[in-house]
Amino acid sequence: MRTFESVRVIDFTQAIAGALFKRERTGEGAMIDLSMQDVGAGLTSPNMSQTAFGFEPALMGSRSLSGNPVTDTHPTKDGVLFLMPAIEAQTGKVWGVIERLEMGDDTRFASLEARIANEAACLALSHEALAEDSSANWERRFAAAGVPAGEELRLPDVLDDAQLAHRGTTKETTSPSDGRALPYTNTPFKMTGEETGMDCPPPIVGAVTNAVLVEIGYRDADIEAYRAQGVV
Fold it and tell me: Which of 31, 95, 131, 232 is a plausible cystine mate for 104, CB 3.0–4.6 Å?
């Protein structure tokens, strides 16, 4: 549900941008109709075309669409590693990184089809190797070999991540209700010559209602009447 909600916000933002662009070009506004069910259906789009060939994808979790058992989350000595070899050449490098070169010569793991057919054995041997080191060390080792991989982080780890701090992704603002520091994530994109993200904390409920109504043309008397009726 949280994933749907996050994607819904992104879709809604894009819809608003599109409506504003239309208004700028044509002078006409637009009503935006956004369904949570449509958002959820949209997330299945990469898999939908497969149904045209009579194939129904199984539940996948974090595994890739290819079904490669190596491309998934794996337990390590101290946590979880998300291993993401996207092509066969990268999968072939995995065996060297985990110091199990014999797996590269094993016909059970020599191709994508073979690994899928022998998934249990492939994962058992891989997990045995990955249990010998920490997620952070594995991330560095795979990066050095050119294989995409990432340590699974807890929320406090994300807030302290050096790369995110370098890019200004995690920031703080002040709560308008009690003054406490509130961490938040800035926009993931940067724009030349522009500051992105919010420039003030989110208002408490109702704090800007009057200002918004006045901006769109309501008089103070109208607003007070609506308040008396419980409309706002």
Answer: 95
